[in-house]
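Hey,

Quick one before I head out. I ran the complex with 4'-deoxy-4'-aminopyridoxal-5'-phosphate overnight. Inputs first:
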Amino acid sequence: MNNIETFERLESNVRMYCRDLPLVFDTAQGSKIRGEDGREYLDFFAGAGALNYGHNDPRMRDALIAYLSANGVTHALDLHTTTKRQFLESLERDLFKPRGWDYKVQFTGPTGADAVEAALKLARKATGRSKIVSFYGAYHGMTAGALAVTGNRTRRGPGLSTDVVFVPYEDSPYGAFDSIGFLERLANDQGSGSELPAAVIVESVQIQAGVYPASNQWLQALRQWTRAHGVLLICDEIQAGCGRTGDFFGFERSGVVPDLITCAKSIGGYGLPMAIVLIGAGLDVWEPGDHIGTFRGNQLAFLTAQIALGYWRDEQFLKLLAANCAAMERAVAGYAEIPGVASARCRGMIAGIDFGRSNVALAKDAQQRVLQAGVLVDRCGPNGEIIKLMPPVNTPTEQLEQGLKAFGEAVAAALG
Ligand code: PMP
């Protein structure tokens, strides 16, 4: 048995994942994580997107060990360092150049929410406007500004900025709505005093809301609308980015080029904290001191991030990723057929198995059975009624298929 008594005695009792997955883990490699009891689990939770390249990638681990053994700089605040230069060069070579992109990089505090704060603040400064359009169900983080654009009233609580207009997403549990048509009306409103927003902030896949991928068409229409009205488009790729959808960023297939992109979680590549904002041409209106913070960038994450970005030029990695996306899509199509599953949605390496609004208990039960079958999964959606599947994107395909099969069997048993 895992001994969780210390946690219960000394730690605050607000940890949702831990309540759902009451185990103690000690070692992990690739897609596998081992409990103190010696049992191995497939980690299809993957740090909610912070472990897209799995645990302890040997190349990253060895680079870290070598760097530390050579007394590499571990913290330099904003000073120029060799690893930071190498990271910037790698971003340019591996991400920007192949896509023809022209972005500046803003290092923010280490969490995704910090990057969202910076993007909102920059959009307001660049446009001189204050309103932000966000979407029902959106998740952007827990700091005051990021929380103010998070589309979940119970999470938000009182006292936050109300300069936010929430609009339904393309497809969500809140029903279908012509959000682009609504935005068009807002822009043309001369009489009632609606103001144009500084920015629209959008996730290419609303993951915490329950895994709702936006269509290319919808993202394109959003890009068109924002461009037509001088409104900035911020894509929050903190969870959908870094390979989760099968592309580096979830919006890439739409051809949309956002003005600002927020990126965190797997950008560091090893579960190491780092968050950045990519700033489109002409929008870097920061003055020195405008957006500061002690932990901007992370020397160790610069090192592992370069290796992670390098995978995007590695044919073998790209082949594995394509095979894995196909395996996920096949499996998820099968889950949709299980009697009792309300629907199952998939985009690349992210899937949501929806048990229906009033079936939270079933989703919980299924999650426990999946755990017994040796697979860690998280839940999402308004009430936790959707199981979220997020395996590391480079899981060996055979291992992925084994986990997906075990998952399907456990779900069928829970509903049978
Ligand atoms: N945006 C999105 C889309 C996210 O999924 C998250 C984290 N789940 C955040 C922002 C906030 O990131 P962090 O928890 O690192 O602050």
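Residues 315-335 form the longest helix (21 residues).

Talk tomorrow,
K.
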